Amino acid sequence: MRTDLSPSPSVTRTSRDLAFQPPPAIDQVEAMIRISLFLFPLLLGVASTATAEVALRHVGTWASGIFDDGACEIVDYDPALQRLYVTNSSKKNIEVLDLSDPTKPTLIKSLGFGDYGAEANAVAVNHARKLVAAAVENENKQEDGRIVLWNTEGEIQIAYPTGPLPDHIAISPDGRYFVTANEGEPADDYSVDPEGSLTVVDLGEDGSEPTHAELFQIGFAGLPAAMIEPGVRIFGPEASTARDLEPEFVCIGPDSRKAYCVCQENNALVIVDLASRKIEAVRALGFKDHSKPGNGFDASDKSDGIAIEPRPTFGMYQPDCIVAAEIGGVTWLFTANEGDARDYEGFSEETRVEDLKLDPEKFPNADELQKPENLGRLKTTTSLGDDDLDGDHDRIFSYGARSFSVWNDAGDLIYDSGDILERTIAEREPDDFNSTNDENGSRKNRSDDKGPEPECLAIGHLRGTPHLFVGMERHGGVMVFDVSEPARPAFAGYYNHRDFSADAKTPEAGDLGPEALVFIPEKSSPNGKDLLVVSSEVSGTVSVFEVSKE
């Protein structure tokens, strides 16, 4: 059964309108939206219980025994050896787990970095070349990091230099390219703000030895102004494009020709041609109009009830994760719109709506709006909103979009999930709605911030149908959507391996803080069944779930 629960949220682009089909008359649109919002909880209840299309069944967990210290962040799978590779920032290594029995993931060994760096921010397996690669930051984050390369038996082959703070690594499907997103994050006092960049390692078409690979550093200095779309956030002390763009997460298209990199704080997408090693575009991702029906959210941690309502704010998409997939012969991009603020000792954009001076004409109800139970507690930015530069805010912006989005390969928005994530949690787990990830009994703790915080994504085919798995960092859990029609994703299930009644620091609490998802298709699976691996940073666990389509 395909249950299409997608609203039609309105989206504000920063520089141009998207080409959509001519809409029906306004009164018809409003009527349809009101009907869909009324029916949403009923439809969702059917889709997420007995008639759910996709079910997750927990089969096994490996627990590091380390709570809330980055023990299990990013994970990848080697089908040839049936092993998982997991970053462990707490122990500053890569944990290698035997997954031959998914019910009992077992630690085999740990991989160290030698003298090549402090800790790994990401790990990826090059299946075609039988290599494991990690993005390793320097002890001084503002200095160059490394791509450390092992063979799958755990022997270091080589280390390539990257820019400062390589935060993520991707490997092309054909195995030719390694690409890192080098964030170039400033020092806390902003005394040093290194340039962001991407590193490309080219192993060649013929499968050259790692020692013969070509290495390219791609920065943003000298880019033509026309290449940077208006609306890309360049801000902060003595900001420049080169220093201010901070690559966060990178993926590579299914044809291995292009890399797509999100710069989270900048609310931007960078598109890179890998053959020429040139940046093609720096796209502004725009803003989500939360005042439109279907785009609402719960805005306060001080109000008693759950109020997922339209708000007079604009959400910056600010994705953390991006994945690419070919569906129907077309490349599509999917983002998890977590949101993030620049909040340093030397500079902070973060404040709350109650502390803004709002324009009296744009917000005649400012006193009511800024009450704690309304929008007053919502975290916002001082870097945007004073459109006419008269000292007050004409618009209110919030971090993230509390959603996932679908984009075409040029970076145009095709679909956004609106308020589906929060509505699902409200319907399924109202007593623990918008909880934080390191404490139980924390209902609505994150409503004033970024809600459930969609963090990680994976694409998997179930009986030939592509599905998107969305992990939520704060509240926990994984939602599943049928994306066979990327412009009309359909809700297909929800599962949260978290016990809100247990002490969050105990194993009984389950998985807290999902950071990465890996889908293992049945043909590559140790037990011949589709699996989903969830790596959770707060609980320090890696859990395995069998995925079935009912």
Describe this protein's structure.
This protein has helices at residues 26-47, 241-244, 366-369, 372-376, 420-428, and strands at residues 11-12, 54-63, 75-78, 83-88, 93-98, 106-111, 119-126, 131-137, 144-151, 156-164, 166-171, 177-182, 197-202, 214-219, 249-252, 258-263, 268-273, 278-284, 287-289, 314-316, 321-327, 330-336, 350-352, 379-381, 397-399, 404-408, 413-416, 454-462, 465-472, 478-482, 490-495, 514-520, 531-536, 541-549. The protein has five helices and 34 strands. The chain is mainly beta. The radius of gyration is 22 Å and the shape is globular. The protein starts with 10 loop residues before the first strand and ends with a strand.
Give the topology, please.
Elements: E1 11-12, H1 26-47, E2 54-63, E3 75-78, E4 83-88, E5 93-98, E6 106-111, E7 119-126, E8 131-137, E9 144-151, E10 156-164, E11 166-171, E12 177-182, E13 197-202, E14 214-219, H2 241-244, E15 249-252, E16 258-263, E17 268-273, E18 278-284, E19 287-289, E20 314-316, E21 321-327, E22 330-336, E23 350-352, H3 366-369, H4 372-376, E24 379-381, E25 397-399, E26 404-408, E27 413-416, H5 420-428, E28 454-462, E29 465-472, E30 478-482, E31 490-495, E32 514-520, E33 531-536, E34 541-549
Parallel strand pairs: 20-25
Antiparallel strand pairs: 1-19, 2-34, 3-4, 4-5, 5-6, 7-8, 8-9, 9-10, 11-12, 12-13, 13-14, 15-16, 16-17, 17-18, 19-20, 21-22, 22-26, 23-24, 26-27, 28-29, 29-30, 30-31, 32-33, 33-34
